């Protein structure tokens, strides 16, 4: 075991030197090769340097926290990642070491604290992993030097795998630095290349700064000259009302008041999730605080120091929220964490800029210390530490911007976190480099998780606006979302759209006041009918279906997965504006209802569309007996059905047709004529309209729906 | 109640006059209208005349036997039939009386004796039905006189409905005459227009006549000038060895010896079905025999007469078989009923001809009596009564000829009897007219059923050859039969054929000795591969599937239904010869087998095709690990699969792909490369071949199968 005196660590500053970031628009291929060579190899070196803080086998092989692998895994993982992604873009055709690459493939990130990892691993020796890393380094350098390269460097470029690998490694340099900080102190050692900040003093007084109302426009274009992870691309805009924000990050000193006030023990300051975590963790103060008798110390990456009260408090999101609730009570103000949009407004109100010639005016890029520093050390306009020092929790669960799509070689980078349980952190920390250090980067962690992260609070009465990030995965709903709003397969035109057009055409110059789509499912025909009708009501028995239509009408992007093969999925999204239907939303309504027992309010329509409905009703004749009552005189009933009678939907004795009756074949069409004849005349001949429902990438239902038009004449 | 003296009935003979039959090739439309007018109206009159034998309400409304409706039903039914069929061919657009037509629509024919009808009907008054019949008569005559008519008179002609209606009515004149014969004697009366034969004497001695070996060619062409029911069309040929046949029908006198010998009580003479019927019916002698003290009488249609021992015995098929078994025991010969083919040979050996100018030389066409007559009354060459007098049971369960198809307006005339339980009767009876009286008509009844039918026995050691008539209705088997041998849907080429061609093309100039189709289902690819390979083995886990391939290889026509809508079906058939595959049958074998545990014998192949197999195996990796052992060096493995992994077929932990593995998307194709790499090289790029499986007329599975070719190199 090795312990190093704190004093030793205060010099020399910044020995670890890393290129800050990589320009993807470097003029010519040779220039790009040179830049990437440096970006890659210095990152690889940095990992080596970081892991030299591990002082014994236990440091490598014992898990610092039960929720993650031991550090040996991450040491190999960042190398294996290159091999995996290079295989996917076919820059290489063979693995280097299938055994090690299997061991190092799956990162265990962010497991829930109540979902303990009990897997057993037979970890290889450090030397073997070092040797493997050397081979990966040689391989990647060989590629960088000699592999064919065609610019531009965009998502489709096979070299994207290398850039992604470097950015991935930089993330792990940061997360490993956290794990080292969580490792037992006696197993790690300080290194001069990883110096802690020497400055420590009482906490400064925080204050509030006015942030004026403003417009936020987020999301990078796909031809951005900076690398991005999938969720950074696309488009998001919002108008943010004025609010106030703390000038400084909350310091250990400011946070101490909360601890002293019994904040950890007072349930009123904690939300339900916070209470569950607090009780599980038996937390009484920030995780890196160490009480020694009457004194507080702070655990840094490789050492413990007497508490630097003017450094930022490092807490998880749940603690940060509890602090804000306490602060609200203390101040009588509405104190809370900022949203992502509000953080961007704080950034816009600051004067933060990165000067390419000078050390960053922020505790960022490893350009100052291997630790936080005083919260008032880096002034960026009216604020300090808008970027750098430690990350800042936001109230925003991560969500995809408009136009979000997954990268083909890393489709699960972000999508698993679209679950309303991962909140964005902003601003970067002292160890953030590359993409991490970009103000538009969008990392998110479970709210109970620790990073080098703290908080800046805001005061605002504006409600917290969260964007929906949920991906609908219910198989039937997703099949119908794709059926109504997704791709066309087998050259078959969109069915609910085609039906609506057919119905509108059949209306001719007739009245266009009011239409109903009965059995509307996820609602495409409702919106299509509203291109023509003044009001359209969509009714379906399934609230799960209706919910999708309601969300679309609200202007939301509805996200859903479709099955690719087995459990693999593709990520899809639908939005009215993309279909030219945004204008129709004001004219539609959705209701849950039963076509066999329809509420009296649903009446007076010029058109009723019932598409693929009748063979799913429990009593279709009951519906057909009453449907004339819901139509205006002269109104049109449009029926479409593949007549797929199944006992699971319709008891056998309620089928309309598809059996022998009085000795003759009795088809559903015969039944429709018999049941509707009293009030309707059939308009035109029946026609068959095809439709396709995708089940997997390789399997589809391909059906024909018989469409009949019925004019109410009596 | 009215009873008529027997003596009165013996004169005058033959007052009921009916046109014998209708020519469909009558030169011009007017001639056809005239012929049909007479054919229709005299048939309609004949029904009226027949029902005048009913003497009281009970005769109309009480069921003569529990298995059938009362006679009032049949009186209305034959009229309603015209309306129903005219609706279907759209010669009329509206019903005459929907209520009556619903009552009279469904004939209750041939229920099993252990399947009693307990339906309740509220039958209309005779006068009301008479009035309805008058309206139908007027309607049909109006059509015959004035409806547009275009010749030829074939299946597609809407007028076919009228001809069918007349032939249908003639059948019911015969079956109603049987029901009247089964009605209580005191409720019916004799009529001079329905005279019984007056001749009665002791039975003549029967003898055997040599029938030389010969060829039989049956089945009428679809452009035949005579009306036919669906099962008479098509083609059947057979070579029949020489045999002997009784010169005479078995007379009541000859049958009495069987009765006297205790034949009804001796289980040894009865087969299992016969025993069940005999015990249920408590039969001790033929059904129409009436014992009066020591005397036997015979129930005729409207009277009882002292037993005419020289008339034919009238029995069901089970009694006829029992008689033959007794006769075999008595004679030491192999006595049995003839097959349909043998009956045709007897006909060909006779000199039966219908003289259009003279009364028939047969007790047929109602041209002599309304009863049977002595079995030696009508000599037709070496035999008597080859046609006429009473029908003759055969050993042949009815079956469809090659080229069988159902008529669009009467698709259940024959198909419900393709169940191996309905045996053909041949030759017609005294009341048979029209199509019934044609030697090529093919009526079949349950073997326990009574008609005016008896038997002529044959002596032959040739086995009874039965054609398969079973329609496969198992949903999965029928879907696969249609998939492999049926129509092409959505412009998608036949999949098993396309795969076989693809495999053969990939073989190039390679060896063509031996191939295996593993997971061959109903076997189309097996036969297609045998166009190229000297031997092809088809293996499937499902014996139900294999059975279809075996039957096809044997040269059978395999018949199956496909779902149209709900419970309605279409009738389909497949035969190798129709697909140009007859030659391949000698080179194929089918085996039941498990791809995951394949018997050692299956080895040494130049090609193995596994189409849509791997995602249906319980352990696909096991199959892939061993498959190289079954191929010759240089041999080709062709895999095709839509990769539809489902836990119901393959446990989740046995899926080859379709999940995240080591953090990356792991597709089935990745797994194939990994599993097969040790012994195979992939030949060419994967390609996707579409296939369609029909579920109903409106619903299809439309999938893509990824095809990969693997050459065994190690």
UniProtKB/TrEMBL annotation, chains A, B:
The entry lists its GO molecular-function terms as: formylglycine-generating oxidase activity
Q: Which gene encodes it?
A: ovoA
The residues the entry assigns to the signal sequence are none
User: To which species is this protein native?
Assistant: Comamonas flocculans
CDD domains referenced in this protein's UniProt entry, alphabetically: AdoMet_MTases (cd02440)
User: Could you tell me which residue ranges the DinB-like domain spans?
Assistant: 41-175
Which pathway does the database say it acts in? Amino-acid biosynthesis; ergothioneine biosynthesis
Q: What is this protein called?
A: 5-histidylcysteine sulfoxide synthase
Instruction: Decide whether keyword Iron is in the record.
Output: yes
